[in-house]
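Deliverable D5.2: sample structural annotation.
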Amino acid sequence: MNTQDNFMIEKRMEDLLARLPGEWQYLIQEKVIIVRKTDSRRFVLNIPIDASTKEIFKDDRLWEECCQHLVETLKMSMHHAEIVTRPMNMETFEELRDHLVIKPVNVSDDKVVNDLVIHEIHGDIAFCVFVEEGMWKEHYAGFRITHQTAANWPISEEELLQIAKENTLRRYPPQIMNIELPEDGSNIILRAVSEDDTRTDYQLLNVNMSGWIYGSIGVFDPHTQERLCRMMGGSYMVSLFDISMAAVHRLHDNVYEDISASIEAVSHMPGYMLTDSIYIYEADSGKFRLYEPN
């Protein structure tokens, strides 16, 4: 970044911090701005430094809208964190109920390995109970619920997981998208496939969840699995290397090799990879599981 960019970012960050209660600080790195509360590790917001961010920072009106949203998001995060640390009864829990959603992480995540957070294992993916506070671009403010926190809540961990899954599906319904490759070689086009679509010969489909950055987990929804089975004409394979969407492949002789090659091609690209494993839905049993090649 040049000196002018740094000056602009510093000016906007000073404005943001001045509107927040308590002591806050920011750190400008090469590709991200880290905003955190001075006396707590819990409240951290990462703001990517890219072309669209710089455009927002340059425009006073866009910055004002953005800044107000960031302030409200961080204030809400502090409010909910204060709730979970005080004695919990059902009335207090209701303040958090609608904000509980599922955040998927790989089972290698430190908090999952050490069994610190409430989670449910699906293959090599852990569904964690997450208190969602809001987002700016694709960066969410929020936190995962630990066993220690939930121990004093008037509800079981199994019920928390169920509420989070129901909230996620209700607020961010899964979408099945057809992938169209234009003959002129231009960018691919994704089009939503309606519930009443009767085709059974799809070769490649995409699944995401409307408005949810962790939309790849839409393929774990039983109703979506049944739709995909019908549209693919039977069993199918899934890659979930992208946290935002899952690629669904019709079975053919070299499908495993083709998917493995596509995962390898993007494995070194920047971004968060959920898993490099491949999953399979078995039409006969209705099971969705990790695929283990012979």
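Annotation notes: The CA atoms of residues 72 and 134 lie 9 Å apart. The chain has a mean pLDDT of 83.
The annotation will be released with the project's public dataset once the embargo ends.
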